[in-house]
Design brief:
The radius of gyration is 26 Å and the shape is globular. By secondary structure, the chain is of the alpha+beta class. Helix 4 crosses helix 8, helix 5 packs antiparallel against helix 19 and helix 17 packs across helix 18. The protein is built from 20 helices and 21 strands. The strands form four sheets. It has a nine-stranded mixed beta sheet. Strands 12, 13, 17, 18, 19 and 21 form a six-stranded antiparallel beta sheet that branches. It is about 35% helix and about 15% strand. Among the domains are: about 110 residues, no CATH class; about 120 residues, no CATH class. InterPro entries: HET, HetReg/Transcr_Mod. It holds the Pfam family HET. This is Heterokaryon incompatibility domain-containing protein.
């Protein structure tokens, strides 16, 4: 086959027309033979769509396509080999083969059809690789049973109600400890190892899979011919585990197992990525896809971008283009693979902010990356109000469009926005209200100090040692506490701040919301202060806790601790010139300005350029101005708004 002329694509000229694969029957060791046929999408025969991870270009394999050799990635080749029937033709669709990847014009047109392709397919076949992979390890044949059993152990809960989730989390942990004492199956002692093996597979990190499974009538995950898993079973389990905090004791259990394994002990300062860290990320990404499935008919493209920021793309332009089928409402853009990455990001931002009359996307600017390396620098020709979508690795404070808005720092009106003729400057209406003055040490700075190698990988954001991580967390809380109240008072056991100040500090340490941007109740805010006092108490024996203390710690870990860490990983605590508490971008410094923009949910930190314009450092939380108080006070005092120029 090596000397034959390779298969050449016939151009698609008719609108809404696709190619379908007809794969010849065969067994495991037979060569793969396919034919590609053009068909109008609206009258296409029944077909199944394949979702898979492309992999690198090194492992190319050849198939026979319409009698000619055609090269493809190893992953798709293996998937086709396994998915073909032994005795009849199977009709399939796979992007790498059905779209001429060398033709950017065809690729742009076909990408617009992909939402229709995946929603019209009778089912989506997800190919995760062979059962025993030399890199990612084996996936046991009983993995689907493990997933179904875990799902059955989770209670039903209202994920739009922060108080209900907190109550269900506490009840679940109490029930688990009771069942453990009775020697019965429980969520904490469940055997998660098969799912760990599954989640190591790279498919879960690929951004295109969001659309591919979210739009599917039915999606089945395949690992070789041995494992078949219903996508919705895995998605509901991952979502429940994350929402109820069950992934935290699971993480701790895995880490302790690893620490106790003599042949796998690692010096945490060696810079080696944690073995289980990708598993945690995969669990979070599954939850993100499930949220897309729930809300996509009422969501905007900005919601999609915010929800899928941890996914990876081979082509950076696909951080936008891979989501075009998911925005049910609001403005959109057309895919253009002839445009540069910077142009795509800038056009997307203008469309979403100016045409969409929304400042949500500004919360992602200039980027939301924890660690910066020479290999991952921000695109130089982007204005700071345009997010570099390649670098988004931190949650944002703004709410999804499909959820009730948590904050109204810029009031309840619409933003007043325009862009300069050269598309370099964004004009906003707003008001400068404060400046940061005193700063606590951020958690990121402490992580880098403890493990300098994390600068090389955003994934390695945690210490392999849970004990060291806990001590670092306590040091971080202490730094914020001392910044807020002063070193002398922080060391004074008799010092008790006024209740209003306590509530302000507690709200600021959690940015006042949970992981779905539900505003926390006063009871939950009080829990945060109690938790911080417990963490900072030198007499609290947290390492050798009793069973009852373990329950308390589990509840804190699942609710309060997560509320504190969710949005503050990418910020640092500060006290402003006006004495307000805030969580502001990591690179903020004295001289920066805090502003509220009309129609913006949250305040922003800007840096003067010296020429009348400002660069955007990012969104922030400033207690006491999150519900429009600053604009109301300005209006009452007759202080006019001003035009703020962002470049």
């Amino acid at each position: 086959m090596a000397n034959e002329v390779a298969y050449r694509y016939t151009a698609i000229t008719a609108p809404k027309t696709i190619r379908l694969i007809r794969i010849a029957p065969g067994t495991r060791d037979d060569s793969v033979e396919i034919s590609l046929e053009l068909t109008p999408l609206e009258s296409a025969p029944d077909f199944e769509a394949i979702s898979y991870c492309w992999g690198n270009a090194d492992g190319q394999h050849q198939v026979v396509c319409n009698g000619k050799p055609l090269s493809m990635h190893k992953s798709l080749f293996e998937g086709l080999s396994y998915f073909r029937f032994p005795d009849k033709i199977r009709v399939l669709w796979a992007d790498a083969v059905c779209i001429n990847q060398a033709d950017p014009i065809e690729k742009s047109r076909q990408v617009l059809l992909m939402p229709h392709i995946y929603s019209q397919a009778t089912r989506v076949l997800v190919w995760l690789g062979v059962a025993v992979d030399p890199v990612f390890g084996p996936v046991p044949s009983h993995t689907n049973v493990t997933i179904v059993q875990g799902l059955q152990m989770l209670p039903s809960f209202d994920f739009e109600n922060a108080a209900d989730m907190a109550a269900k989390t506490q009840a679940l942990s109490n029930d688990a400890l009771r069942l453990r004492e009775e020697g019965k199956p429980n969520i904490l002692d469940h055997d998660w190892a098969p799912m760990v093996s599954l989640l190591r597979r790279p498919w879960f990190r690929r951004k295109w899979v969001v659309q591919e499974v979210a739009l599917a009538r039915e999606a089945l995950l395949h690992v070789g011919s041995e494992v078949e898993i219903q996508w919705l079973d895995l998605a509901r389990l991952a979502f429940g585990m994350e929402a109820l905090g069950i992934d935290k004791p699971w993480r701790l259990k895995l880490e302790k197992q690893k620490a106790n394994s003599e042949d796998e002990k690692v010096d945490p300062r060696k810079g080696r990525s944690l073995e289980f860290r990708p598993v945690y990320i995969s669990l979070h990404l599954i939850t993100a896809i499930y949220m897309v499935q729930i809300y996509r008919h009422h969501a905007t493209l900005v919601d999609g971008v915010m929800n899928t920021k941890f996914f990876d793309c081979t082509d950076p332009r696909d951080h936008v283009f891979s989501l075009l089928g998911l925005g049910g409402i609001g403005p959109s853009i057309r895919p253009d693979y002839e445009a540069s990455v910077s142009d795509v990001f800038r056009r997307f931002s203008i469309s979403m902010m100016v045409e969409g009359n929304s400042l949500k996307l500004l919360s992602l600017a200039p980027d939301r990356s924890l660690f910066h390396t020479p290999e991952a620098q921000r695109l130089q020709d982007l204005p700071t109000w345009v997010p570099d979508l390649r670098l988004m690795r931190v949650d944002v404070m703004v709410s999804f469009t499909v959820r009730p808005q948590a904050f109204f720092a810029g009031g309840h009106g619409k933003p007043v926005l325009s862009v300069s003729d050269d598309e370099r400057c964004l004009h906003c209406q707003g008001l400068f209200i404060d400046s940061p003055q005193r700063f606590a040490t951020s958690l990121v700075e402490m992580i880098i100090e403890d493990i300098p190698e994390v600068r090389n990988s955003w994934e390695t954001t945690e210490d392999p040692s849970p004990e060291r991580r806990e001590k670092r967390f306590a040091r971080w809380l202490e730094s914020a506490y001392e910044t807020a109240f002063g070193h002398d008072r922080a060391c004074d056991s008799n010092f008790v701040p006024e209740l209003e100040v306590v509530n302000s500090f507690s709200r600021t340490m959690s940015c006042g919301t949970d992981f779905l941007r539900n505003r926390l109740s006063q009871e939950q805010i009080s829990t945060i202060w109690n938790f911080i006092q417990w963490e900072l108490d030198p007499d609290a024996n947290k390492d050798e806790a009793s069973e009852r203390d373990s329950t308390i710690k589990l509840n804190y870990s699942s609710t309060t601790r997560d509320s504190i860490l969710l949005l503050t990983m990418g910020t640092k605590f500060c006290v402003t010139e006006s004495g307000r508490f805030g969580q502001i971008p990591l690179n903020s410094k004295p001289g920066d300005r805090i502003c509220v923009l009309v129609g913006g949910e949250v305040p922003f930190v800007l840096r003067p350029t010296g020429s009348g314009t400002y660069t955007v450092l990012g969104e922030c939380y400033v207690d006491g101005v999150m519900d429009g108080e600053a604009l109301q006070e300005a209006a009452a005092s007759g202080i006019p708004l001003e035009t703020i120029l962002l470049e």
